[in-house]
Structure formats: structure tokens, C-alpha cells
Description:
By secondary structure, this protein is an alpha/beta fold.
Amino acid sequence: xxxxEKLYQCKLTTAEQAVKAVKxxxxxxxxxxxxxxxxxxxxxxxxxxELHDVKVRGGVTMxxxxxxxxxxxxxxxxxxxxxxxxxxxxxxxxxxxxxxxxRYSELPRYYREHVGAVDVVMMQVTxxxxxxxxxxxxxxxxxxxxxxxxxxxxxxxNRNLPWVYGLTGTEINIKDVDMVVEGENPxxxxxxxxxxxxxVDQQVARLIVEQIPNGACxxxxxxxMPNTVGSLIAQSDLKDLGVHTEMYVDAFVDLARAGxxxxxxxxxxxxxxxxxxxxxxxxxxxxxxxxxxxxxxxxDYTNDVRVIAQLDNFISINNAIDxxxxxxxxxxxxxxxxxxxxGGQLDFVMGAYLSKGGKSFICMSSTxxxxxxxxxxxxxxxxxxGTIVTDPRSCAEYIVTEYGMINLKGxxxxxxxxxxxxxxxxxxxxELIQAAEKMKIWRRSNK
Length: 447
């Protein structure tokens, strides 16, 4: 038995024993996305009645934590999400959860300098290798920085998590772990690929693909339109593309298998597809497992504007919820209702613009149909009260709807209004013009 194996056996315990490390008033970290604990979460939930004021951090939550399921869960636990998923929104709706606004690229530094306490961190990891290391798998993002601050580190081994090669900060050694729990090896949580692309998705994607040169380096956001762009690229004549992205999604796997990705033109990490975290279907998890073509990295590397700027022809493609006539882009809330988060969108918008030959695209359908059946314009005179500005008007570059593509860089307020209205749905253009006139950002000559 090696030294590492002896340490492993010495630190091996049950979930029930491990969670006794959590005390009332503690800050507990569940880490991120696919790596949230399962057996440990269940064991902690079983202790709910003896605990109060336990604050738990997580993000991009893929399933409802057991600690959040009880009717009076908020009496014992408070959830803090760094980035909201549909599950996080349900937790907030229960009255026991809150959103923590961030620029995702800064999150590791928050843990190093600003986060007050990490009393216990519990997370899923891969099985230990012969060198005593556990991989953070598909969510290296900021996990090393969480562990650096944590008073107690508990890992829950899941044999189904893929091992992802990566930079420093993507593994943890048994020497640095306090307790090991062998979990129930659940399948890695999958993020559905979504339905087939709509005609609007395809129209927007076609406009963007025309702007992508051979050898470009890609970042795709989550959602139907970025995925549709990926599908069209896979069917195109484009070649020698690279990948440097925050979130790795199924579309990249399809592109790689179609032979579109070589990464040979990347100034950094040549030949490697780099990401901070990944979520998708089993196809994705199988593809990244011990695949030297992909590389996990901390998010303060993947999303650093200064890093992105070094990658020529960087193409950033992200979604938006709505935008106003001044060019302010909202990608995270519906008025006061929080939906997702800033994430890395602003980082990639700025980084792509600084890249030689780079371009940033924000895409959206021109309209949305509400639950009441009413069709509304995604382009509005001013953002609704409480709406979050994800991309300031000074940073937005290319905006794309099914009615066209515009570039806001260098435009005055009236030029912006005119350009933005030109890609709105025709049904709403006249009322947008009238609103622009009232706000004094419309020239009479435009009529």
C-alpha cells in the first residue's frame, strides 16, 4: 500500500460522520454545478433540526439540494448562488436563497481576498490517482481557491466523473483533504441539449457564421442560438478553429468530431480546447474524459480579458434577454426577477473587442411571447425598472436579431437608436421611434 493509499484509508469516513464538521452559523461551500455533493448533502439535510443559520454557497445548480427540500428548510439553511439556474430560482422563490452578483472572472480572487469564511467545503471529485490526486473534473473554475480558504475539506468520490487534464488548480491532493467519502456514484448531472433550432435561431446563426474566419477562436454561451451557431459551423467550410471558453457545451464536441477544431492558430494553449467548467450530455462527459485535446482551467484564466485579448480572431457569441435604445444589454433578469447572472459575458465582450480581428456578438430573437400569449419586443425604449445591465452601452459591439446585424461601436445616441430599431420586429418599430423622439435620441431626418 502506497503512502497515498494509506492516507486515503486513514481519512475515509461516512457521509454521516463527515457532516458533523458543520456547526450552526457556519459557511459551507457546495462548489459548482456538476460537483455539488450528493451523499454529503443528504447527510447534512438529515441534521437540519439540530442546525440553524448555516449559509451555503453554490452555483449553476443542476438538481435540488436535499437541504432545500424541507418545508421549513429556510429556518436552518440559507442558499447563496454565484450564478442562477432554474433550480436556483426555485430556491430563491422558496424564500431561502439569494444571488451574489459577480464578474465570474473575479470569483477566485473573491475567495482569496473578500469572502469572509469557508468553514467547510464539500464536493464531488474523481477517484484518486496513483499520485494521490483527485481531479475537479469538469468544474475546476474556482475550486482550488475555495479549498485554499477552507478550514475543512471533504471530498465525495464519484467514479462517473470524468478526469479532465488541466492547469494548476484543477486537482487536489489527498494530503490537503481532511475527509474522504465514497459516494453512491450517481451519473454526472446532464444539461439537456434543448429542442431543435427555430427558424429565428437559424437566421441569427447564419448572420454570425458569415463573420467567422478560418482559424478563429470560439467562445459560445449557453442557449439555443449559440448552439445553433455551433451546428452551422459544423456544416460549414470553416477550418482550424480554436476553443477558449467559460462553459464547454455539447456544440464544441460536435465541432471537434466534424474536424473543425484543431487549435493550431492559438497563441496560447495551442491545440487545446480550454474551459472553466463543462455541462452537457453524456456525449460531452465521455469526450472530455482523459482527452488531451481539452484542458480545464481556473476561471480567472479562461475569462481574463488580458488572456482573451492575446487570442487573435476571437469570436464571442452570447445571448440576451432584452436591450434598450441606448445599447444597454440585459442578459440576467426580467425586471426585478433574477434569471441567471453576469457570468463571463462582459469579460468576453471586452476581451473579444481587444483581440486582433476579434468580434463580440450578442444575439436574441426580436420578440418574445409571454405566458399570457402577448408578443413583446425584446428591444425596448429603456430597460424596465430593476433590470440588470449586463453589458454597458459603452461595451456592446455586434447585436444580432433575425432582422439583421449592427455594430454599436462609435455611434452617437441617435445613430444607436436608428441602428437598434432597424433590427427590431417591424411591428414595434414605429412605437420605438416615437419613444426615441421623446427621449431626444431621434433625428427628424431619420423619418
